[in-house]
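In line with agreed milestones, work has continued on tokenised descriptions of protein folds. One protein thus recorded appears below exactly as we store it:

>
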Amino acid sequence: MANEKYPVLVIDDEEPIRRLLQKELANSSREVFTAATAAEAMALVRNRWFDVIIMDLRLPDTTHLDLLIKVRDSIPHTEVIMITGHGDIDSAVEAMKLGACDFIPKPFNLDRLDLVVEKAHQRVRLSRENMILRHKAGYDQGSIKFIGNSMAIRNIQFLIDKVAPANIPVLITGESGVGKDVVAHAIHDRSSRGGNQIIIKNCASLQKELARSELFGHVKGSFTGAGESREGLMSYAHESTLFLDEIGELPLEVQASLLRMLETQTYRRVGEKDERRVDIRFLFATNRDLADEVKKGRFNEAFFHRINVFNIDIPPLRERKEDLPLLVDYFLTSLSPDTTTYRMVQSTMDCVLRYDWPGNIRELRNVIERSIILAENGIITERCLPRELVVAAETSEASITLESVEKTHILKMLNFYNGNRRKAAEALGISRKTLYRKMNEFNAD
């Protein structure tokens, strides 16, 4: 498959141009197809995938915009390059707003066109590899990205799959920045309620005096300032999921009301006599030790036991450093402000691997976003990293490299599957041949 040619489609009504481009653009890694009309082009597009499409702005049987829209609808991830005449620059710019990646004016420079085609292909390839990576190493639910291939992340994925269909509360724990909200979204999206909007509230933002009103709603005149009746989060979350983040910050007196609501699925708005029945799935998250908070009298014990029916604890990033290369690649792609392909050199990756990431995924994301801004020609060196990160990494006791992380991960998987190499290879997403080669490199039996 490594030698498979990627397909390029040239759409132009002038036969000499079609012949020229087919001859000049075809090479050992690229196969060029041609079409003279929009109808011919769509017949080809409906039957196969094209990585890159080169399209003349003016065709006899359609407008460039109509064909561009149809092509993008049929192959969303293809890259379209427009060929323009001298007076068509405005139209080309309009086409780019609709999804074309570039335009080449006539008479065109073949060397430049070849370069533009190759860059377009690289973007398509990167997008495709990223999609495969998300399915192998995690999952992609709409805008939710859960990246990792460590044993800890695999276990979390397993727990999510098991608990998502169940209509029970889930308590998600872990340090700040580890991705508790991502797990909450994943549970919701994989549940029967996934078609409805998840309702999210950070309890730290609730004012103590108004917390009950915001959660349950109130009727007009129920307290000073209640000039009109208002629905609360419970009403909006009916038949969906309510995710209460930083639940450890919820006032004690409100915890008791929420406990009753969890047990009966009924509630009253502030100042209202009649009870309302709702159907809500609850998810909670905290970076606190709630059991310790209970001992100190700062958290309702009965409420704690009610929300802790099923716990998912997310380990900090420093305990799953084998996930760092995948996370770095993901953020380099997703945070790129343009079509530039960003790459982190090995010495910089080694620095990233040595650092302990006290801010976890959130800190890593911010560092990568900063590095992209400082990168030159898409290359991220140590100069792009914050100085304090480099210093901390240099003073780290253990010199961790990508190779050592890979070795640790492979040996963990072998141990997890009791030495069964076939199962370990499947879990790692590599062939047994590759696993044997890696084991020989590591001098592992």
About this structure: The radius of gyration is 28 Å. Residues 110-137 form the longest helix (28 residues). The chain is about 45% helix and 15% strand. Confidence is low (pLDDT under 50) at residues 131-144.
